[in-house]
Amino acid sequence: MSRPTGPLPPGWREVRLAEVCELQGGPSWATLRTGRHDGEGVPLVRPRDISGRRITPDSVGRIPEEAVPIRSSHHRLRPGDVLLARSGAVGRIALVSEQQAGWLFSGHLVRIRPLDEVLPDFLVCCLSRPAVAAYVARHTRGSTIQHVSLQDLGGIPVVLPPLHTQREIGGQLAALDEKVRIHTEIARTTAELRGTLEDLLFTGLLGAR
User: Fold this and answer.
1) How far apart are CA 127 and CA 67, in angstroms?
2) pLDDT at 50
3) What tens digit of pLDDT does each residue of 121-156 get?
């Protein structure tokens, strides 16, 4: 994966993802068909539930509590975990929030749990870079269902600055992501309003002025 040439700033270093994070593939039993949007059961995150570097809770299905194996504890999500799609919609990425603690993730995702040397906000920004997307694309296999191995994901090069710099980078980019989210929501709401107004105008229910 290419980056600007030249030495890194003092205190920065380049590492492999597996050196600073724990990578855990989703369990095979978590490919169960989900349903139950009534609040019952355990939420199961799939690649389709990831958008804009976050999990979209409204789309997340649930599996019955009794269908979850007792050994599922090491597949439960914690705040600060990062999810990356490893098959299907390869490359989608999301940061797990406090509200999603204890949720499960499907076998199409890999959970990346940062160790002490890397901050979650910085990591999700780092893994969202085009250079990382290009690395993942080069290591993606399969014609019918595309996938990338856990070993290849662990080899993603990560440029790691000191923690205080990570905090600054993560905070600045997270603030921009929030602005993008707000403007996207405004655009969506405005488009819906236009459609409603158009229907009223063209049916004579609202007089044009």
Assistant:
1) 33
2) 94
3) 999 999 999 999 999 999 988 877 888 999 999 999
Please state, in angstroms and rounded to a whole number, the distance separating the CA atoms of residues 120 and 108: 21
Q: Say if CB 52 and CB 80 are below 8 A apart.
A: no
Residues in Cβ contact with 162 at an 8 Å cutoff, skipping those fewer than 6 apart: 11, 12
Token duo for residue 127: 């893994």
Task: Pick the closest to residue 17 from 126, 112, 156 (CA basis).
Answer: 156
Distances in Å between the Cα of 177 and the Cα atoms of 115, 132, 202 are 24, 18, 37
d(CA 76, CA 72): 7
pLDDT at 34: 56
Weakly modelled stretches of the chain, pLDDT under 50: 1-2
Phi, psi (degrees; rounded to nearest 5) at 49 = -90, 10
Domain range list for the chain: 16-158
Helices (H), ranges, the chain: 17-20, 120-127, 130-138, 150-154, 163-202
pLDDT, residue 1, reads: 46
pLDDT value at position 2? 47
As its CATH architecture, domain 16-158 has Alpha-Beta Complex (3.90)
At 140, is the secondary structure helix, strand, or coil?
coil
Whole-angstrom distance, CA of residue 199 vs CA of residue 56: 30
